Amino acid sequence: MEETDREAVATAVQRVAGMLQRPDQLDKVEQYRRREARKKASVEARLKAAIQSQLDGVRTGLSQLHNALNDVKDIQQSLIDVNKDWRQSINTIENLKDVKDAVVQHSQLAAAVENLKNIFSVPEIVRETHDLIERGELLQAHRKLMDLECSRDDLMYEQYRMDSKNTHDMNLIHTYFGDMQKLSDELAKQLWMVVQRSLVTVRRDPTLLVSVVRIIEREEKIDRRMLDRKKQTGFIPPGRPKKWKEKMFNILERTVSTRIEGTQADTRESDKMWLVRHLEIIRKYVLDDLLVAKTLLDQCFPPHYDIFNRLLNMYHQALATRMQELAAEDLEANEIVSLLSWVLNTYTSAEMMGNSELSPEVDVNSLAALISQNVVDQLLSKYMSTLTSNIIGWLRKALETDKKDWIKETEPEADQDGYYQTTLPAIVFQMFEQNLQVAAQINEDLKAKVLILCLQQMNSFLTRYKDEAQFYKEDHLKNRQYPQCYVQYMIAVINNCQTFKESIISLKRKYLKSDMEDTLSISHANMDATLDIIAKEGCSSLLDEVFMDLEPHLNELMTKKWLMGSNAVGTICVTVEDYFNDFAKIKKPYKKTMTLEAHRRVVVEYIRAIMLKRISFKNAEERKEGAERMIKEAEQFRFLFKKLAAGSGEDTEGLCDIIEAIAEVIKLTDPSLLYLEVSTLVSKYPDIRDDHIAALLTVRGDASRDMKQTIIETLDQGPSQPNPNYVPIFKEITVPTLTVPKLLKIRQLR
């Protein structure tokens, strides 16, 4: 207390010191005193009020505790009195056991009396119920069945209450009502028949379906009531719970499965398109059934049945099972495509689950896959394997068919521009197109794989095509009269190469994504190279054909007969032009190449004839005559090949210039200028060899051995500056060594 007083005094001193810090504040001391007095009085009043309130609360609490004590004492006395009375009434309760038994017996008898009418009329009610079921009056039949079951269940329950172990009486009741179970089974059979045909019934007689649903709902309520009583008493009538709602859904599920499986009307043996027909029937049936379920069936069932979604799940599961069964069969390639296309595309398309009339209840994005990705991959792998074998077989068959055309006695067909062709490119690429279109029905990835496969097999096929064209040429060389249209069909083979090139580009442009272009660039280059080889060899074989016919006339060149006025070159030109009338049916890229090659080979053969030294001019007059003839014939060749190359834009002058340059060497009259003329020739055509110069000087006929040696040695020492645009031609020409037989042959030619 003293500590509190000291703290109060210290606080007061502090407050006073805070108030009286300046001299002018002393005048307000009285004012400060009154203010503090008021505050003190206010605090004391609040303190008194608080203490008074606490005292009143304590007084009230003590009064309530006193009353509670009195109540506890009264209750204790009452419990003592009750205990005393209970002990005194034990004997009385034991004396009332007979009354209790009488009450139970009375309850059972009352139940028996209440059901007495039904008990005696059971056979009659059974007959009536049976008749109602046969007439299809299912609601009334079920009402009577419910009455019979209620009577039986009440009797059995009372018997159970009286003596649950008395199985004899229970069996007696059960036997008496035995026909009732048969009625229940018969009624259920009728219900399940309606449920099985629910999608048909709902369109013809929706009332019947509603009656069936009402009966099932009644049975569900009875099942729930019986299960609740079992929890309370342990008793449940025989045959309960019936679970007819669960059975209804099971029957619907079996019906859906049977409907899906039953749509297969054909087999592979009877119809190659059996799977397509089967899947189309499934699509139509499922779509029709779901539309009926949404528009009509949903109205016949209570909302909590969620009948549409339940049916949707049943159809989806049945379809998944069926698709897995089909996937497990040994399907052919086209059947695999049909199945995958249906599963991956048709199922979720607007033709089926994506139909606008099924939305928004059906969300195709939430539907699970009908077959797993693993099964899809296995089917695709099998498809690619089968397709590979099929393509190889198709290509082999197409080539064999084309080869048969090569030996026909009629010319091949021409396209709209007049170029010879066979049907091979069209057949091959039509097959590729069909397979790519089929693959595109499944997905882009498969389409890309099929395209790569087609081009890979095309690569291998072109190698076989090249070999067969070579065999065709070799067979012809054995007998040039057979086949009769060899030239025309070889032209068709050459043209096919260009068609193949264009078709490959078209196929890639149509089906290949730009990001995969690099993947196939090497393969494409290889195919182009192979096609170029086939075309080049074909052109070469045709030119061989030409030069085999020209051989007798080429042998006349640079002989005494030629010098005396042979028309060999005229015949050569006519023959070449005649052949090139047929070669006009060759497409431009190859015709242009062939014209240049023919020009080059004619010039080479002409120069070779010079280098064969068949003639040696005796004097200047013969040299002049021979040279002028060579210049004239070079002009004939120039005119011919300019005509044949018309419109190609190619320079055809240079090759014939070689003949004219050689003619100038032969024509030269002053031997002292021979070295200069020969050196000019060598500078223009640097691939000319010493033996060529020696042969040329031999043909002139006026050059001695020493002169030849001097010219050749001098030329060997001179610098060579070849023209970068010059295409070597002399390297193909071999100068023969003069043996005795050859000398005799040359003498005969002269």
Secondary structure layout:
Blueprint: H1 2-19, H2 29-95, H3 97-114, H4 116-120, H5 122-135, H6 138-162, H7 167-176, H8 178-196, H9 198-204, H10 206-233, H11 244-261, H12 274-300, H13 307-328, H14 333-346, H15 373-406, H16 424-440, H17 444-478, H18 486-511, H19 517-554, H20 560-563, H21 568-583, H22 588-611, H23 620-644, H24 653-667, H25 674-684, H26 690-700, H27 705-717, H28 740-749
Overview in brief:
Helix content is 76%, strand content 0%.
Relevant terms:
mainly alpha, 28 helices, 750 residues, single chain
Question: Can you give a write-up of this model?
Answer:
This protein is mostly helical and 750 residues long. The chain has 28 helices and no strands. α8 (178-196) packs across α11 (244-261) and α15 (373-406) runs antiparallel to α16 (424-440). The longest helix has 67 residues, at 29-95. Mean pLDDT is 84; it is low at 739-750.
Straight-line distance between termini: 166 Å
Percent of sequence in beta strands: under 5%
Report the C-alpha radius of gyration, rounded. 59 Å
- Separate helix tally: 28
- What does the main sheet amount to? none
**Judging from the principal axes of the Cα atoms, what is the shape?**
elongated
Oligomer: single chain
Listing every helix as H and every strand as E from the N terminus to the C terminus, the arrangement reads HHHHHHHHHHHHHHHHHHHHHHHHHHHH
Q: What do the pLDDT scores average to?
A: 84
Give the strand tally. Answer: 0
Helix content: over 70%
- Low-pLDDT regions: 739-750
| Strand-pairing-aware structural class | mainly alpha
